[in-house]
Amino acid sequence: MSRQRFSAARFGSPASSIFNLLTMSTTVSYALDVFGGQRRAVESLGAQRDFQRYTVLAAYLTLTGNVVNTVVARAGYAAQIAATRQLIEIQQEQIAITATQVQAGIAAYASIVDLKAKLAALQATLAPLEQKHSQAEHLLSTLTGHAPGERTLAPVDLDEITLPADLPLSLPSKLVRQRPIYWRPKLLCMKTAPISASPRRSYYPALP
Questions:
Q1: Residue 158: which region, alpha, beta or left (left: phi > 0; alpha: psi -120 to 50)?
Q2: Is 80 exceeded by the pLDDT of residue 82?
Q3: What is the model's pTM?
Q4: Domain-located, residue 128
Q5: Which GO molecular function terms does the record list (predicted)?
Q6: What does the pLDDT read at residue 161?
Q7: Residue 138: domain span
Q8: In a domain, 110, yes or no
Q9: Tens digit of pLDDT for each residue in 103-123?
Q10: Residue 190 near residue 47 (C-beta atoms within 8 A)
């Protein structure tokens, strides 16, 4: 916008009141994208955004899958520990009964030695199971955003973990298309499209 003062006396006309003349102007420019270079760049930016979004979604699905696997493994180790301790108690009771039979003269002492060897082997399997159970607890705490030992995790019974009653034999294609593994290769191609097209773009003139 520009402002000018105008007087008719300059052109030989009778003097009159001086007034201001205001003129307004604007400039509009548009970059022609005849060969599609800018359009490919915009598509690449959109693909980069979607690629990052599906990358985050893939990380979330991986995290939730690892949490479920760790919960099941922890419950399985706990069940094995409980079963092993129960077998140890049964083995100790059997040794006590056999010792009474040996004192009564109705069983050989070698049977006690054999039972004690089996008991020692059974007790040796308990420590590795407890170590694996502790490792699963620490991993579960880390996956849920807590330091190992920061909080006490609630025990999970293996019998409480069940599959759904009705499992579909097939899945609709819409569910498959929601998975990141379906979209990431396509978005990666769109993301790198301007890089592969840049040598060809230089063959054509760039319009101002």
A1: alpha
A2: yes
A3: 0.63
A4: yes
A5: efflux transmembrane transporter activity
A6: 82
A7: 70-153
A8: yes
A9: 888 888 888 899 999 999 999
A10: yes
